[in-house]
Amino acid sequence: DTGVSQDPRHKITKRGQNVTFRCDPISEHNRLYWYRQTLGQGPEFLTYFQNEAQLEKSRLLSDRFSAERPKGSFSTLEIQRTEQGDSAMYLCASSILAHYNEQFFGPGTRLTVL
Amino acid sequence: AQTVTQSQPEMSVQEAETVTLSCTYDTSESDYYLFWYKQPPSRQMILVIRQEAYKQQNATENRFSVNFQKAAKSFSLKISDSQLGDAAMYFCAYSSGGGADGLTFGKGTHLIIQP
Lengths: 114, 115
Description:
The structure holds two protein chains of two kinds. By secondary structure, chain A is mainly beta. Chain A has no helices and eleven strands. In chain A, strands 2, 4, 5, 6, 9, 10 and 11 form a seven-stranded mixed β-sheet that branches. A four-stranded antiparallel β-sheet of chain A has the order 1-3-8-7, with no helix packed on it. Chain A starts with a strand and ends with a strand. Chain B is built from no helices and twelve strands. Chain B has strands at residues 3-5, 10-14, 19-21, 24-26, 32-39, 46-52, 60-61, 64-69, 74-79, 88-96, 104-105, 109-114. In chain B, the strands form three sheets. In chain B, strands 2, 5, 6, 10, 11 and 12 form a six-stranded mixed β-sheet that branches. The radius of gyration of chain B is 14 Å and the shape is globular. Chain A binds chain B through residues 31, 33, 35, 40-46, 48, 55-56, 58, 89, 91, 93, 95, 100-108, and chain B through 4, 33, 35, 37, 42-47, 50, 91, 93, 95, 99-108.
């Protein structure tokens, strides 16, 4: 068990560009969550999947954001037409259905939009 | 909507001493879970301790224990025998019973351990 991994760890992009992040959860974890954390704040929930189904989306997830988990394993989070306000740490977490509240977090992807 | 409040932006404690971090929350639900997460400077969140709302007994994990006051909606974390490796941001978090909205976090408390 290698834990939750995220790629890339850092991303710098120019305003208006599209970016995509990847999350690989712990093997056999059914649930996968995405959070956003800005400086000095706690993480904020964005969305979560149970297997391949996206079951909940926060109002923070604007139309420019889309997340997928096509085969119920890894997930991608895409941000289109990035804005400076999108600069943040994007965290992924996973949990097993039997203990869904115990979420294990990845190291995060730090996005900087210039 | 549920809210989690951590009123101590920063706390400092001498190594080997005991420190208590405060957390209050607001919810109208009866089935929920509370957590303390640690985020060291490397920024990977680590689960420290969890508490089920239906359990009256306070959770304990080695040097970490909680004081769960359900009526007061208070959930404090006590760290005994503080160690240098305990230095980190500590986040209090709430989850509803179904976990549908993920975790709701407080703003965190920066814990400094003085040698």
